Structure formats: C-alpha cells, structure tokens
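Hi there, hope your week has been kind to you so far. It would help a lot if you went through both lines with me. No rush at all, and the record is pasted right below:

***
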Amino acid sequence: MKLSLKQLGVYVFLLMIGGGAGLFGSRYLLPQNRSFQQLRNITMASPPESVVPNASNGVIGATGGDNVNFIATAVQKVGPAVVRINATRKVANPISDALKNPLLRRFFGEDEQPIPQERIERGTGSGFILSEDGELLTNAHVVADTDTVQVTLKDGRSLEGKVVGVDTVTDVAVVKIKANDLPTVKLGNSQNLIPGEWAIAIGNPLGLDNTVTIGIISATDRTSTQVGVPDKRVSFIQTDAAINPGNSGGPLLNAQGEVIGINTAIRADAQGLGFAIPIETAARVANELFTKGHVEHPFLGIEMADLSPIRKQQINQENQLNIQQEAGIVIQGVSDDSPAKRGGLLPGDVIQKVNGKPVKTSAQVQKLVESSHVGDIIAIEVNRSGKIQTFKVQSGAYPERK
C-alpha cells in the first residue's frame, strides 16, 4: 500500500515520539528520579597480590594465596543479607497522550485506540535485611509508586514484599517479606567517620547480584544542596567506592562489616563520587515507618547559607540586605506562614546558636533541628544588625509534597 505524503509524515511523527518514549523508559529501568542520577559502570579491581591493612589489628599483609582479607570477611558476613528488589509500576504512555491530537485521531479513526494508555515499567535496586522476620531497608526511589515488589535473596529465593512505608524527604523506604530465620546485617556508627577510612559497597549494579566495590570515606556531612538534591533532608557520606545503577538501597560498610550508610544519590556529572545516607538517619526513619507508616520531620521554614566574604556580597546584593559578618550562617529567606515567621526570625539574621549550642555551618543547624521532634520549642540565637537576640520557635511538620 502506498502512503501519501501526509500519512508518511504522521508515521515519522509517531516514530519520533516512540523513540523519545523508549529513551525515557530505558532511563526508568533504573528506578530513580532526576535528583538521584546514576553513574555508568565503573570497574574497580585490585592486583592479585595487592597490599591492604588488616582491619582487626592494623597489620599490613598480602591478599594473595590462602589469606582472607578484611574485605572478604566483611562481605561473607553481610552478603547473605543483601537483596535484589524488582519494582513494577504503571505509568502514563506519552504516545497515547500524543494520539489525542485531533489531526492524529482523524488518521487512526475516532473510535480506535491503537496505543495503550498505560505501560508497565520495571526497575531494579538493592536493599538489606534488618530483622530475621523479614524487615528490609532500601531507598524510597527504588520502590516509588508501587505497593508490592519482588525480593530476591542471595540463596535464590524470590518472595513478594510489601512496601510498608516511604519517606521521600530522606529517600528511605521499608519493605516486609514473609520469612523467618533470615540473615541480618549489623548496624554500625557513622557519627565519627574520618575521611580516609575504608568503605565497602555491596549491591546489584546492572542486575549483577552481590557485587562488591571498595574505596574510602571521602568526606562526611555533605549537605543535600552540595550533593545536588536540595529537596532532601540528609547530610550525606561521600565515598569513592564505585556505586552503579542498581546499587541504590544497598549497604555501605566499614572495615568491620558494619552498615554505616545506604548507598544512594550519585552525581551524573562526576565519576568516582558516591553518596550514602548515614545509618543513624536511615534507622530512625525506618523505625517510624514500621511503627507509624509515615515520618514527620521538624520544620522551621528558613533558607540558610554559609557566609564567606564573597558570599556575603552576593547575598546582600541579591536580597537587599546589609550583613556585616563574613562568617556564620545567614538566614536568606523566611517562608510565609512558617514557624520561623511566627517566631520572629527575619532575612539577614545570622545564626549563632541553636538550643544553646554554637553552630558554624548550615549543616549543623539542619542536624540539630532534624534531631528534635515536631512541636518542640527551639531556641535560635542570632546576630541582628550587631545585636544578639534569641527567638523561641515552635517547629512544625515538614510540608508534604503533592
């Protein structure tokens, strides 16, 4: 059958739309949103006779031969508790929406629906087992927009998992599977991490189950703004352990094989940088999700910035302020009808203390606020035009996104 130029043009248009949808779908095969981009695969390998420290006694020894190094020991301990999570979700089909165009409807016929209005998308991530009776921890973006997931254990069993709760503010989610006597991880401490310490990541990148990568702790207390996800309320651990598509939700371990974080946000514009949610934050959120099904985050409603001589000039010009200090935390903005507004805080105030504790960075302020409870009275000491004042602010609940 010969096609007219008009019909040929319509077919080309549909092919262009289909190509765009295919690209979107392939990106969505890695369950993520724009804030949580993933790096391409990074191969990290060590020579057979590489030299590494023994985590238990600090002695340096070769890893070749029959010796088992601290990495292998940690992986043997934790690996059985790391799972693969496959999520399935229905999403609107952009091609179907495009066919609502009157010109295209005339071509296909008013009563025909040649393309389904929804399509199924599948994604793979990681998680780890917290309790012997099947409580799992993972990332929120791994299980977003679905109530059930398929959980595959290292021993090959595949079980249906119920998504018990999701907290998009911290990107933490919890899943429950029906099983007993499961292997579990041991939670460690991320509060006193020092850059240069060993870091081990386990997950299922690109569908390759129980993949292990090794690196170091590169930095701690990276703010969500620095990482490129300003809508989150997390101070991230930075590591150079390779974290690839599918690693999201898997554990970051210390040299002793204890979980110190959940592998998560990856900056797509830089290789060798990975980020993890500190395990204390993740465990606290997980506990609330399992007990209440949701999490309330304390909220003041202020926009902060760390001051420097250059930053001070920029803020003064952009916000028509007259800040004199060249160090500290300045309040750039105060949200309307927010706890901070009601408590008397103003743009240009420079925060000195929170609940009597001196603070030097906005990350410290965020941590102190996040460690409180909704409804608590928080004392904020500020320098306002050279005068020290203290304001008592009753925190509210972080607004839900729709």
